[in-house]
Amino acid sequence: MQSPIILSIRHAETETYSIPGYHIIPGTPTPSDPIPADYQRIAALRHVPGHSPNNSQGIVDSADKDRQSSEPVPPNPTAQEASQVSTQIKLQVETFVEPSFQENAYLLYCHQGGSCWIVDPSFPPQTQHIAHAVERARLKPSAIMLTHGHADHLAGVGSLKQLWPDAAVRIGQPDQAMLNDPQQTLSAQFGLPVLAGAQADADLRPQQELELDGLLWRVLDTSGRSPGSRSLYCPAQHVVITGDALFAGSIGRTDLPGASHSQLLENIRAQLMALPAQTRVLPGHGPATTVEKERRSNPFLADGA
Ligand SMILES: [Zn+2]
User: Fold this and answer.
1) Which of 84, 189, 249, 263 lies 20 to 30 Å from 35, alpha-carbon distance?
2) If one looks up domain 5-301 in CATH, what number appears?
């Protein structure tokens, strides 16, 4: 059987902005702010009737079923068939590093012109870079996945939702009320409230299975950092996106409201450390790692920790 290959692109960004007391990008969109001109340009193109998807500046409209892709488009399998074909699919992961928090947003897709998921969009300019990548690969965002409800993982939701209103905002039910409560996003405390700017459309329920163009993903309960923290695991591609539950050599802070250190440790051990050793861990901050490496060297997971 062909081994799955994960194509990975890491976008290193260099621009850094800060405001005393809170590192944030000036002009971060909120529901009351106009969206940046760049978004308006893309959104306008997207809604021009008859707009050609071959225009390199345009976003492919999700209603356009006649688009041409530079890569062959595989058949869309049923959920039953997906588990058989998903090892033959190449998952493509693009990582976008938000410069102030070193927060990682991920763009996941299988082929150009297909569906994609955007995971944890943060502050501009990261959101613009995500939008450009979606546009470049002529992708159709079907979901904006949020690993949890903290400001640095959801600040870009409203802007992206304006571009792609059909992309479902999915987040664990216990964190859904956090999206537009600046106290719960942990941003009001820093004097500059950050909101998602959109409501949750759907839950991320533990053990739920979701499909992205033939690839099956399983939702894992990694609550503890926040009440509804989730990880996204793709068994066929040996990859898990862990948000702020597990980092390379560390785990998420639990000295903040709504957190539980014991719950987080229990879930990391039961849900993440139980995955196959070669599973690639894509965390919410910092570099990627593997389950094997964290089992061996993460100081928070040593016996007795
Ligand atoms: Zn974070």
Assistant:
1) 189
2) 3.60.15.10
